[in-house]
Structure formats: structure tokens, C-alpha cells
Design brief:
The relative contact order is 0.25. The chain is mainly beta and 96 residues long. The chain has one domain. It is built from one helix and seven strands; from the N terminus they run βββββββα.
């Protein structure tokens, strides 16, 4: 997973994602949910100091630049617990 920057409005609504030096404008309402962290699959004990059992996930439909005619692609972002930033899991373009 690679780190990305999520730009947001003053209300906290994502407006753009900066990934690999390129800015992708959010073109549809983002979807947010939480998933259970499966720490037990890789470790025998919950990592010390982690203290979380859920991870925040954000799915955004974005288009490269500000051109409203460009095609939308879907990015799935995961909140990095300790750092508080975002990491990109995948996008529809990655699967193609």
C-alpha cells in the first residue's frame, strides 16, 4: 500500500486525493466504513500500544485533474492508525 494525501473541505468532506504526485478530484460522494483488524492472523498477541480493533476505510470515485469529462476511477483508502494518514489499497485502474 502506498501513502496518499486526502484533501478535504472545512467540513471534513474529501475533495481530492494526491497520489504519486498527481491530484485526483473527488467526483462523487465518498463512502466511509470500518473493518475489523485481523491482527491475530499475523501475531499471537495484539500489538502493544495499538489498542484498536477497527480500521477506517474510505472509498472515493476520483478523476485525474479538474476535467469533469474525464473518466472516474474508484480508489479504496485505509486510515493508517499510528500516523493518522491514508494509504491506498487499490483502484479500479490497478485491476485492469
Amino acid at each position: 500500500m502506498e501513502y496518499v494525501v486526502v484533501k478535504a473541505s472545512p467540513e471534513g468532506i474529501p475533495t481530492a486525493v494526491v497520489c504519486n504526485g498527481r491530484e485526483w478530484a473527488v467526483g462523487a460522494e465518498p463512502v466511509r466504513w470500518f473493518e475489523r483488524v485481523s491482527w491475530w492472523e499475523n501475531r499471537r498477541r495484539m500489538p502493544r500500544g495499538l489498542g484498536r480493533v477497527d480500521v477506517e476505510v474510505l472509498q472515493v470515485q476520483v478523476r485525474l485533474g479538474r476535467n469533469p469529462q474525464s473518466a472516474l476511477t474508484t480508489m479504496v483508502l485505509e486510515r493508517d492508525g499510528p500516523g493518522g494518514g491514508w494509504r491506498r489499497r487499490e483502484s479500479a485502474a490497478d485491476a485492469a
